Amino acid sequence: MIMVALVSIYILYMLSSSLGMTGIWIALSIYMSLRVFAGFWRIGTGSGPWSFLKDNFARPQ
Q1: Dihedral of the CA atoms 11, 12, 14, 17 (nearest 10)?
Q2: What is the value of pTM for the model shown?
Q3: CA-based nearest residue to 43, from 32, 51, 33
Q4: Where does the record place a coiled coil (predicted)?
Q5: Which range marks the domain in which residue 38 is found?
Q6: pLDDT tens track for 2-60
Q7: Based on the structure, what is the number of domains in the chain?
Q8: Is the dihedral of CA 47, 50, 52, 57 positive or negative?
Q9: Residue 7 is assigned to a structural domain of this protein
Q10: Residue 33, pLDDT score
Q11: What is the dihedral of CA 30, 32, 35, 36, to 10 degrees?
């Protein structure tokens, strides 16, 4: 999430200086998209608090 924040801050600075408020909204949309991608990536690896997901789907009940 730190990498997502750093990339988003850079994009926010660049777009807001060139496009104004439109750039801010585009940068915030990119930020939220990167957060979704990072969250699903973390869930897919099974690390973090979602390790139970991997265990439940691996064995049928």
Answers
A1: 170
A2: 0.64
A3: 51
A4: none
A5: 2-43
A6: 888 888 889 888 888 888 899 889 988 988 998 899 888 877 776 666 666 666 655 55
A7: 1
A8: negative
A9: yes
A10: 92
A11: -100
Chain length of the chain: 61
Residue 19 belongs to a domain: yes
Burial of 30 (0-12, 13-18, 19+ CB in 10 A): middle
The position carrying tokens 């869930």 is 43
Query: HSE on the CB side for 16, CA within 13 Å?
Result: 12
Q: What is the pLDDT of residue 56?
A: 60
Torsion angles phi and psi, residue 44, rounded to 5? -65, -30
Q: Which pair of tokens denotes residue 43?
A: 């869930």
CA 37, CA 22: separation in Å to the nearest integer?
Answer: 23
